[in-house]
Amino acid sequence: MGELVQYLNKIKIPQRGDKIYKDECVFSFDTPESPNGLYLNLTTYLGLGQDHVDAYYQRTNNPVFLRLKRSKKEIPAEQQGDGPEKKITRLAIGVVGGFTPDTKKYEYDESYEIVILPNYVTIPYPKDDLPEQVKTAIKSLLEAESASKLAETEALAGTWDGEARIVSKHAANLKQLGNGKKIPPSGWKCENCDLTTNLWLNLTDGSILCGRKFYDGTGGNDHAIEHYRTTGHPLAVKLGTITKEGKGDVFSYDEDDMVEDPHLITHLAHWGINITHMEKTDKSMVELELDLNQKFDEWVALQEAASKLTAIYGPGYTGLVNLGNSCYLNSVMQMVFTIPDFIKRYVEGAPQLFQQSGNDPANDFNTQMAKLGVGLVSGKYSVQPPSGSEDERRQGIPPRMFKTLVGRSHPDFSTNHQQDAQEFFLRLIDLLDRNSRHQANPADCFKFKVEERYQCGGSGKVKYTHRPEYLLPLPIPLKAAVNQEEVAAFEAKKKEVEAKGQKMDSNSIVRPRIKLSSCLEMFTQPEIVEQFYSTALNQKTNACKVTSLASFPDYLVIHLKKFTLREDWIPIKLDVAIEMPDQLDLSMLRGLGLQSGEELLPELAGSEPPPPVFDEAILEQLKDMGFPPEACKRSLFFTENRGLEAATNWLMEHILDSDFADPFVPPGIDMKAGKTDFKPNEEALQMVMSMGFTKEQATKALKATDNNLERAADWIFSHQAELDAPDTEEGPVQDAAFRDGNERYKLVGFISHMGTSTMVGHYVCHLLKDNRWVIFNDEKVALSENPPKELGYLYLYQRIE
């Protein structure tokens, strides 16, 4: 006890706002359930696993810890009780309201002891004769909310996770007609067609009509919504979903959403429906959506569910737990940590990164990257269970701190909603760039130079521009399918079957099969650029643009643009099979630069052309609709301010363009050539100044980041010493170094998506390791027997030397 007393000045009583990391080590994935428990420092409240305690003590001289240990024991089935049946309410796996693979129930035992370093002197807790300061500090720590839970709550503040439904504004005073209709308890049929499923009862006039047609062609014939457009009667309940408790799927056409109707029992009674006799006989909208997003053949193929896969353990074979629709993050991080650049920087360099992490390692990007990398590569958390044991089949580490950190302040990645793996990959690239200012950036292995050649239609002269990219987006030419006749026959058969109110057997689906070479050819096709400013003619004209690659990276990420918009602007996913070769020669994409006989367009002579003029009224209307400001400027420029409808149509047609929201530069004008005066974006300037910085400081930050507000905010806090230094005229610093080599590659990984849109469904990663394919399906890692290479979304190719 005397040794503890001498360190009382080191023991702090937590105050409001203190972060207490008692769930997980900040440098590893050790928890109180780990064999050695978790050491919680009583000075800084950092949680540490056994492997990091000594190093932390040597670095900080903070010696007093509370060791937390927790053990779990399965509750025998006969002691669990029946309990209510679990209802699936969310499109996710392993999260509250979603599918729960493990239905076992456990009870937990917790124990504590005080540990004093360097000699690991232990004192039991609780203990009557402990100093009051120690008792108060530990009691407060154990009762306080953990830092990880507080961070998740903060990240999700103001977001909607898909569970709650609003009460309809029409529910309280819904008009119901006295037309004498009585609804029978069964035998329903659409009043406008022969469909007997997916039927909706309009609560105002008692009509029974079929619902919307789904993206895959199933569902109804849209008669219920057509009825609303004719009558304006807003609420309908899906027949077959009504329960004895007075619940059911209610849709408000006016509010365009699923809603709650607190008066549903009364509204149903008006049509002679006694809910005490109702049984749920049809699928709810959530269940139907789950069906759509788990297309049986796609789900089975991508997860290899039809095969009895052999689990694999050890270094490099650690799974990642799905934290509320985080499979997009899991797949991308599994992919990048197979690459030597990332292993060298974040696994081999982990000790140094941990030492440099500062006072809050959980909020240091490089530390959390190292923690994740070591967790995935070391094999510490992927140990084969004893022979014959079923315990912990789905071993995996939960990337909580990493997910919270990379999602912070981001409108999409801070939520628990499903996100796009391609967008997350670019988010990761951006974070790597911000946090690699003084050392090599491992993302340089993906970086390549895109060459764009413009040929002026009036003068024939050319202009070459270059920009860095980290993935190659390829369009999908459906007209190039090699099995068009087979697809046409399938579509005809599908319509015939659906006309009878039936559904096609999922195993008989025929997808358009397209060769990767067709996608590459479409990528290199010439494109006409309108309103190109020709410096040879000093006026706008048309130009021909050809895109190619001026360098080839060590690892090439190919993004198949499967997500697109239908003619009615509804986002859809192209259900296609792309023949992806194991070896790839991309010589056809090599840009050659200025050729003999070509004449360059002259630089701007004298003053610049007049800046584009935007109709401010239309611009504000477009921004109010939610479009990015720079995209709105693009639309007005290319539609020549012809009106709101023309600009909106342009935006919807180009919403998937890679530069959609980038700072707008009129085509043909080099904003950097011969330019000495940087003009900051006014909105971004005001935002940075609102943080307490001067106009000059804010301008410098925006200049260094090409008017990118998010990057500017990061730049300004990491370049405090440069804020008041004299400015230069060099503009943003650009890294001109691009790795380059031959154009031959081999396939080493791919990420697949199951579902109808990026916002729902599931991601799975396949990687080629030790000359064998391995499937990473969240926490499950197994040898792959039939890798579905033709159904992927992102592909990783490695250069063949």
TrEMBL record:
Record protein name field: Ubiquitin carboxyl-terminal hydrolase
SMART domains assigned to the protein according to its UniProt record, in alphabetical order: UBA (SM00165), ZnF_UBP (SM00290)
Domain USP residues, every copy: 318-800
Organism placement in taxonomy: Eukaryota, Metazoa, Ecdysozoa, Arthropoda, Hexapoda
Family affiliation: Belongs to the peptidase C19 family.
Reaction(s) catalysed (UniProt annotation): Thiol-dependent hydrolysis of ester, thioester, amide, peptide and isopeptide bonds formed by the C-terminal Gly of ubiquitin (a 76-residue protein attached to proteins as an intracellular targeting signal)
GO molecular-function terms, A-Z: cysteine-type deubiquitinase activity; zinc ion binding
Chain coiled-coil ranges: none
SUPFAM superfamilies: Cysteine proteinases, RING/U-box, UBA-like
Domain UBP-type: start-end pairs: 166-275
Keywords assigned: Hydrolase, Metal-binding, Protease, Repeat, Thiol protease, Ubl conjugation pathway, Zinc, Zinc-finger
